[in-house]
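Quick illustration, no need to memorize.
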Amino acid sequence: MATAMQSFNESEATVNFTEPRSFGTVLKSDIKETLFPDDPFYDLKNEPPKRRIWKTFQYFIPMLEWLPQYNLKLFRYDFVAGITIASLTIPQGISYAKLAEIPPIIGLYCSFIPPFVYALFGSSKCLAIGNMAAASLMIAAAIKEKNVFPETDPKLYLNLVITAGFLTGVMQLFLGVCRLGLLVNFLSHATSIGFIAGTATIICLQQLKGLLGLKHFTKKTDVFHVIQAVFRNRDEWNWRCALLGGIYISFLLISRHLGRKKPQLRFISTSAPMVVVVTGCLITYFIDTEKHGIDTVGPLKKGLNPITIQDLTFDSKYISAPIKAAVITGALATSEAIAIGRSFALKTNEETDGNKEIIAFGLMNIIGSFTSCYLTSGIFSKTAVNFNAGCKTLMSDVVMGFCMMLVILFLAPVFSYTPLVALSAVIAAAMIGLLKFGEFFHLYKIDKFDFFICIVAFFGVILFSMDTGLFTSFFLALVRGLLYLARPATCKLGNIPNSSIYRDVEQYPNATGVPGIVVVQLGSPIYFANGIYIKERIMRWVRDEQSKSITKQGDVEHVLLDLGGVTTIDTTGINALVEIRRQLLTKGINIGIVNPRVSVLEKMTRAKFVDIVGKESFYLSIEDAIKKCQFSLGLSSPHKGSA
């Protein structure tokens, strides 16, 4: 037996107990894995100095990567795509500026300067830039909380809206430069779905003011106040507005349906919003609609964006409103735009860099705030149109920017005839397209708690406020994440018959245990939040196994902990393992550690846990550990598949 044991020890591989790395080495490795998991400068290692400098410029200014290879053939596709999204940008820009209750010309400004900035620094080839409906409404609601209203103090109100865009850009630039784009991922998919659907619903309801021609309306956004305002002012209902609005919405929805069903008719759905605006302008130009109670946008001054850097407002009395708007809308806009860029990049088998995108958004919003723009980001509807129109590079955004420059220089006054009911119809039709309740049912089928988070976000937005819906669902998602950390994945392993594979006995009921040995797999970091739980769970498995062994297999003599999935451990976690060992020893049970990762093993070494347990109790694999334990139990051969 001794000879066999010696022969076995000599043939088996052992855990590598090297000297723990220095603190500086560990810190450097952790920073690299946390902030630079993609190793962005890998290609520079073997390049000559001049080439390395050029590659560095290309990394920080992605346009330098594709512009040298750009040609007329690519431009033909981008030119068509750019003009196409410009035709969609005009009605959307004016409409969404109306949501923010700022001058409509600001909505056009947002699609002039920002697209040029994004074309320089963005990494997504088809992301189209513009102002956002949800962000517009949220910024307006945040600023009104400070009792600043566009009717009473339009100059201060506009300055605060632009300041919110500037602060959003600063936040985005900071996150991108510090490689902290991962923070945006804390806004869960379920929260986004519910929040966007809820916001689309209240935006649709807000359009009842324009669709019914109301002169007075509530400043609240929840469904109760909106419905109350609609019926309280029913004497102001204008059947002409309602008829015209109904026709416009029907036309927009039908054209969208045709575009989806028949790709060759997609140009109809793309141009439909522009058709609505143009026909509305013609109607109001040739007919004195104001006599019939149909209001128009009003004067639009032509000319390039005025410089507004001097108008940024940081007065302590009001600054909390732009900060609040920047944090909320910035997180929402950034996460949504990155998701949009990635989804379309996958269709062409390309990649986008999240941190580059955040830097591009930050610079875009900072520079935009200096030139009369408020928050801009990537827009799904425009990006889809851009992609389907055949764009090849971000030159399509440049083309759109030049088109918008021509509009604001020469054609802006033409759109002053646009009836408000036409803008309300464009907004309502766009928001109806965001009401994807099928995704609610998809969440319900897959994950009930995700569905609950989504529902909370949706009803929180429509019944209370956008802040309430967003923060409540975010809190629930965060609690769920913390529960996953505090109650990590652990399972008892058994041997798959006729193999050396060990798997979860609950997932594989035919997997059988090894007599006298309990194998437990831990699948998360061991730290202060879950150390006690892990200890209690392991001791419960031992107790359950011992209760079975009274009539079946004999007492448990070994507990093996598979730490291959444990990425890190803190001092509380090590103390928990020491306590587990102490309790097991009182029962005459030995503990074994299987496949610890280097960072875990280093901390165990420094904490003297390796010395306490003994290096002979550390194993490379479960199979090696089982063989060693079976020898110590006096078994003649390794167990495979027996109960």
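The first strand starts at residue 129 and ends at 131.
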